[in-house]
Design brief:
This protein is mostly helical. It has 2 domains: 1-136 and 147-196, Growth Hormone, Chain: A (Up-down Bundle), CATH 1.20.1250.20; 207-417, MFS general substrate transporter like domains (Growth Hormone, Chain: A, Up-down Bundle). Helices cover 83% and strands 0% of the residues. The chain contains 20 helices and no strands. The longest helix has 36 residues, at 2-37. The chain is globular.
Length: 430
Amino acid sequence: MKGYIDQCKCYSNDHSLLYTLYLANGATGITFILPAAMLPLLIEHTRISLDTAGWIFASFSVGTLLSAIIQGAFSKRIGSKYLLLSSMVIIATAGLVVPWTHVFGVLLIAQFLLGIAFGFVYVTSNILATRVFLESLSETLNKVQAAFGIGALIGPLLLSFALQTLHESIWAFCVVTILACVTIGFLIPLHIPPAVEGETPQKAGPSTHTCKQIMFWFAISQAFLYMGAEVGFENWIVTVVSKETAVALAIAAPTATLFWVGLTLGNVLSAQVLQRDILSERSLLYCCILGGCLSGLLVAIFPGSLWTSFAASLLMGLFFGPILPSIMAITSRQFVERLDFVSSAMSFGSETGGLLCPLLMGVAIAHFGGSWGMLIPALICLLVAVPFSLAWWQTRENGQVSKSAAFPPDDLMRKQMSILPKVISGSLEC
């Protein structure tokens, strides 16, 4: 009976952590999208020009990059759980400053802090999910990423409701504060295992040893290329469609919304595909890379067709959604002993790609036209297959067996469903 009670506690703790990650990423998704949705209000509050307003997003990006650099050291000192707690505190407090302040410098500081919190949530979610849900990691990360997408979709609706009914944008941020406080309440009593269950404790090697491994650089290359393609497409799709179809921005704007809808649906559907063991992680990733490339080519070939752009944006998001969570899951299992450092490095690589690719696309669109500019994310998406294939080949050459092969994506669920009979018979202990 004691084993039964202990196992139920472990099972409850794991699911509480999963729901906490959902809440944390949902709140982060709302926080991520609200400043862009209310940009005209921020310009009015701070009395700045549209050109100067770009620093609002630059400050957020700098904070995200800084978090990727310092996260490894902070995680060692205070732990991933408390790093996530501090991120929720920043989101709960700094988020309220954004719609309230009339001082541009204070707004930049708030956005900088929110960027740091965003980076911490992204990396710590991966670390905590790896420690608790290693066998079903890709499925779990897709669900967590779906929660972020749902938050990003809900954010503009919250802002619209707050402005139309309460006539103050700050009430939309109050919802974020409430979600962050609820997340803190759930997270504080949770027990986070120091190492992945079932793993033999190993002494982590130095970071320089990890940097010498070619698999490490393949992983960073995948994150760099993917995030460059995603952010580049997301940032330029509305402008290109509006320009090529000669319609107003308000009519072209749904392309970005459809892209976010596709990202969220892609995460949800891929989690079900992996859970039901319909496709392996490798097969799913190749399908998504090819589908993302073909969808991007549709936009590049038919930029003047509004409905084609709508459909292609939805498909682009649908195929893009599972790529990064799958890459993170595969890499985390290969570098589980250096998880903090590798997660931070991949976050830095992805954010760097997200900064550089939109700049490259802007130059291409300005000099060669929208079609050539939108060709870039399609080709970059296809290039993700190169480091991924090389990494897979290197793994096979080294004779390593992927944990995803040893443990099917839905294996954890099978184990959990079979827990009770084993516990009752007295053969299982937590």
